[in-house]
Amino acid sequence: MANALHDRHKRPSSYSSIAIALHWIIAVLIIANVIGALAAEGADRQTAGQIMSAHKSIGLTVLVLSLVRLGWRLAHGFPPLPASTPRWDAIVARTTHFAFYFFMIAVPLAGWTMVSAGPRPLEWFGLFGWPKLPVSEALAGFAHDAHVILAFSTVGLLVLHVAGALKHHLIDRDEVLSRMLPLVRRKTPTD
Ligand code: HEM
Ligand code: HEM
Hints:
Blueprint: H1 17-42, H2 45-76, H3 87-116, E1 122-124, E2 128-130, H4 137-172
Antiparallel strand pairs: 1-2
The structure holds protoporphyrin IX containing FE (2 copies).
Residues 30, 33-34, 37, 52, 55-56, 59-60, 62, 107-108, 111-112, 115, 147-148, 151, 154 line the site of one protoporphyrin IX containing FE.
């Protein structure tokens, strides 16, 4: 029954190197951005400015990589959970992953929207200019609130996600964590 959740997709037997690379690059960038934004609050003006300038470029990178990743996942599918996975666990996992895709796109999109009404030009790591969205002050204000709320919701979801990964590894003792780790020798596909 749990597998009915996956039937619409093609079923690879493991995550590809591209999916694994995108997962971890995006995870590191998101965590760096949360830490950076919090560190900027306690920093002096100049340091805060430098951190937030990197924050915006990192965030825009997350937006682009997440769209690539979503496209990759839609085109290539994802491996099924082990058959022994309880149905409630499969549902929580699917819901968490779906919510993550929403946050990975909505958080930077809200950030981009919120700074688009401001006076400062946007650029990507000082290398090239990044266009601003044609938004009103009101929409930018709404996007600011959304950015903060959604960013902290992402952190909450991350706690659940890591707990899930550890449950699979330590309690279920299945391959769910190791199949998302780079450089781990994978078993011969069996399904
Ligand atoms: C991976 C994507 C991103 C994450 C996880 C993220 C996360 C955060 C967090 C946690 C805060 C601190 C909120 C607070 O304590 O008030 C913040 C603030 C901020 N973010 Fe992002 N952000 C991302 C992308 C972006 C992007 C793409 C932009 C703009 C292009 C942006 C612009 C800002 C700005 C200007 C603030 C300061 C807001 C303020 O002064 O209240 N962020 N972000
Ligand atoms: C903000 C950081 C993170 C985000 C946004 C994130 C997001 C996701 C998403 C969307 C998936 C679904 C698979 C896919 O479509 O590629 C996934 C799978 C996975 N993640 Fe994360 N992840 C993050 C951090 C972590 C961390 C720190 C761990 C380590 C404990 C982890 C372990 C896993 C594992 C083991 C899977 C495979 C689950 C399965 O096979 O069903 N993730 N992650």
